[in-house]
Specification:
Blueprint lengths: L17 H14 L46 H4 L15 H4 L8 E6 L5 E4 H5 L4 E8 L4 E11 H8 L7 E6 L20 E5 H5 L4 E6 L2 E2 L9 E3 L12 E7 L6 H5 L23 E8 L4 E5 L7 H4 L5
Parallel strand pairs: 1-10, 4-11
Antiparallel strand pairs: 1-2, 3-4, 4-7, 5-6, 5-10, 7-8, 7-9, 11-12
The protein binds ligand MTE and molybdenum atom.
The site of molybdenum atom has 6 residues, from loops.
């Protein structure tokens, strides 16, 4: 649940936008259990439906990949996606977007190391130099909320080709940016295994669905979505998609990852979306479409195996 929070000093740094005032007011009303409760969350009224992009890049005119143009569900509203985030470095609530503005995204370097013939360091120019495309993907968090968003980026397999992994490379570890000075988030439990890391089998990274996003809704990623580069793996639970990636390592053995280290029974390494396997604490049979329906009762739909992407990936797990 959202709480009414006293702003921290860092929250003063970003000017408050009209839609934010509106959202806070609306939330306040909802919490009073009065006018807001039954109304549609999708009506914002102020026209401010955009989120600030992180880096200056013109991403207009990037082609939409026709294979991923029809998710058979309506798009999530941009501002809804940009105000409902998981980025535990900034806290365990969903409203971390202001805190995330502290990530220093420009300049940026992604270091690619380990079992590859061509280790390299990629800056923003290199990343934005990949042939970019737009893909509309469904997205399913392990917490049973879901969205549909248009990402801009490039397939991970293009990077694989460029770095030329050695035959011994079987796994890949992705490390997120971490700086304790700006990332104050959860103090409990202590000794969380920062930085946030995630991992894939190399065949999973080579799958055509596996994607690096640099943008969303036609613009560079807002920082809360994991600027300047984040992983997007639409057949897996959302936590597999690390944000603000700074390091990619090719390994012989399966790496330890953040959530899998913390709670292996709840967050497997593979973590494919599967409605038949409940999380130990809740069902995975259904999912809630953020922003649709009323604020108090977001619309719920059935969850599909592999989040509906079985035709692309089921063979990896046969
Ligand atoms: N570095 C980092 N990456 C992360 C997370 C995180 O806490 N830290 N949360 C994950 C989870 S649980 C989800 S559901 C998605 C949320 O992405 P979004 O906020 O862009 O919707 O980011 C994933 N990537
Ligand atoms: Mo998640």
């Amino acid at each position: 649940m959202f709480g009414i929070r006293v702003p921290h000093p860092w929250q003063q740094e970003t000017p408050v936008t009209p839609e934010e005032i509106f959202l806070n007011r609306r939330r306040f009303l909802t919490q009073l259990g009065s006018a807001g409760a039954g109304a549609s969350f999708s009506i914002f009224g102020f026209g401010g439906r955009e989120a600030a992009p992180s880096v200056e890049r013109d991403l207009s005119g990037i082609p939409l990949n026709p294979a991923f143009s029809d998710p058979e569900r309506p798009l999530t509203e941009e501002i809804v996606a940009a105000r409902h985030n998981n980025f535990y470095e900034f806290g365990s609530g969903k409203r971390i977007w202001r805190g995330a503005q502290a990530v220093p995204t420009d300049p940026w370097t992604v270091e690619i190391t380990g079992l590859v013939r061509q280790p390299q360091k990629l800056g923003l120019e290199d990343l934005f130099g990949f042939p970019l495309e737009e893909r509309i993907y469904r997205f399913r968090c392990v917490e049973a909320w879901a969205m549909v968003v248009p990402w801009l980026g490039f397939p991970m397999r293009l990077l694989l080709e460029q770095v030329d992994p050695l035959p011994e490379a079987k796994f890949v570890r992705f490390t997120s940016f971490y700086d304790r000075d700006i990332m104050y988030g959860p103090i409990w439990p202590p000794n969380l295994p920062w930085p946030y890391t995630e991992g894939l089998r190399i065949e999973e990274m080579a799958n055509p669905l596996a994607f690096f996003a640099l943008g969303i809704y036609g613009k560079p990623l807002p920082k809360q979505h994991g600027a300047p580069i984040r992983m997007v793996l639409p057949w897996k639970y959302g936590f597999k998609g690390g944000k603000s990636i700074v390091k990619i390592e090719f390994l012989a053995e399966q790496p330890a990852t953040f959530w899998n280290t913390l709670a292996p029974d709840e967050y497997g390494f593979e973590a494919n979306v599967d409605p038949t396997v409940p999380h130990p604490r809740w069902s995975q049979a259904q999912e809630t479409l953020i922003g649709f329906g009323s604020r108090s009762h977001w619309q719920t739909v059935p969850t599909l195996p592999y989040n509906g992407y079985g035709e692309y990936v089921a063979h990896l797990y046969g």
